[in-house]
Amino acid sequence: MINATKEFLANQDALYDARKNEIRSTKDNLDIKGTAYYVSISGDDANDGLSPEKSWRSLEKASNTALSAGDAILFKRGDLFRGQVTTQPGVTYGAYGEGAKPEFRGWNENLAKPELWTLANAEKNIWKYTRPILDPGTLVFNEGEAHSIKLIPSYRDLKFVCRDDESRDFVMENEMIRDLDIFWHFDMTLTRQPSKGEDFPVPVTGDNSYGALYLRCDKGNPGEIFNSIEAVVRRVTFRVGGNANVHVDNICMKYYCFGVSAGGHSVGLHVTNCEIGWIGGNIQHYFGTDPNYPQGTRGSVTRFGNAIEIYGGCEDYLVENCYLYQSYDAGMTHQVTTWEKRTMHKVRYLNNLVEKCVYGIEYFLDQKDGECESCMDDIVMDGNIIRLSGYGWGQQRHNVHTPALIKGWSYVNTARNYSITNNIFDRSAYKLVHLVSLKPESKPVMDNNTFIQDFGGMIGRIGANENGEPPIEIFDDNAEDKINNIFGDKNAKVYIIK
After folding, report:
1. 69 and 167 belong to one structural domain
2. Residue ranges, the chain, pLDDT below 70
3. According to the model, what pLDDT value does residue 290 have?
4. Are residues 63 and 153 in the same domain?
């Protein structure tokens, strides 16, 4: 085991910066077998879209035009698009031209305009955005210089109550005590859908739930104070659903609930050479069924948002050469809770840089009611740099003790042919890795990974939990021996920060 000196850590930072720049400067190299269509902010939807000179303009045109497998939609480099894209089977979504990757942002506009804000409470410096808005997970100021803390009350007895003290009614003016705190109030639809044995109405939020946004800004009108205010809204940049063989390449996506999201049984989803940052934190539900927040009850709030996600079964799923950062939940994930057979086959996470996501890579296979045939098979995590989980904005969450660079939770997680090799794991506020399954044969093979952690921090858990949860291993003077013999990485490089 080696002491991680300041010089070593500085060299690592330089390595990470170089890797980030490599990903951001990746050239276009798509093999388009069908028709290519072009989209730019200077285009016109009346054009045929068949050349850069005759490009379309809108994301609606790109989403709603009938395409064939093998076709491609190419967005102009250097352009900024707002909104989301509904994908089609077999279609590639990429870039053309010169310069920076085409950039997509979640909300309709930059909020840094004085006319977009009115003073709602002068005594408490609370400002109201003048337009209805989708649920914002947070606000990001000046491209990441600062961000908001989102106040989300629980809902009990037909009223909002403080999440930390449900005996106290939630009154926005009393709770918005910090500069840049936000609160989003929406017109509610109530449901009695049961959860946890409790049955009283709770609010439902969805992709079309608009409401009023309030921001505390002690320095004055936020539109005058900041050059950029971006809302991380409840939208998906590329909505894949169950479409097969979708490829997203060389796109920059910021300020969304999800960057790329697929479900059902996803086949052939490839996400390559992309940058995805400032993701999630939006309200998923008030049902109180979140396993990540087990102390929550009906009426408490679950937040969500992943940069790249498949929820369900999958086959031939690839995330490669992407830069993922500041996600409320995961950088990249495959996950499902299932009562029927699901397979997750040929999953590849390769050569990505992941920073300040609560979970760098998240996965789970939770099998219910005796279901025993589901399996993860041929899972490879290789060549990734994953760092600083629990150090980003997502740590404003209630379940603060969950961050990990790889988070497999402690579900059944039946797996075979599962390997974790040649990665750099650089610090987590909680565990470096959490790799637990019901049976010991589902344990991943680990080899030639680099581990960097503070003295007294956690390596994490690995092993089977059929007879009880494996112990948490600590990053102490015996860390190298633990990583070699408990985690099975005989060729690990281990650096300790004292």
Report:
1. no
2. 196, 290-294
3. 67
4. no
pLDDT given at position 141: 98
Six token digits for residue 127 = 């400002």
Range of the domain at 131: 114-229
pLDDT value at position 293? Answer: 66
Q: What is the dihedral of CA 140, 141, 147, 148, to 10 degrees?
A: -90
Give the number of domains in the chain.
2
Last-in-domain residue among 210, 229, 248? 229
CB atoms within 10 A of CB 18: 10
What pLDDT does residue 198 have? Answer: 80
Q: Are residues 139 and 89 in the same domain?
A: no
At which of 173, 195, 229 does a domain end?
Answer: 229
CATH number at residue 316: 2.160.20
Q: What pLDDT does 292 receive?
A: 63
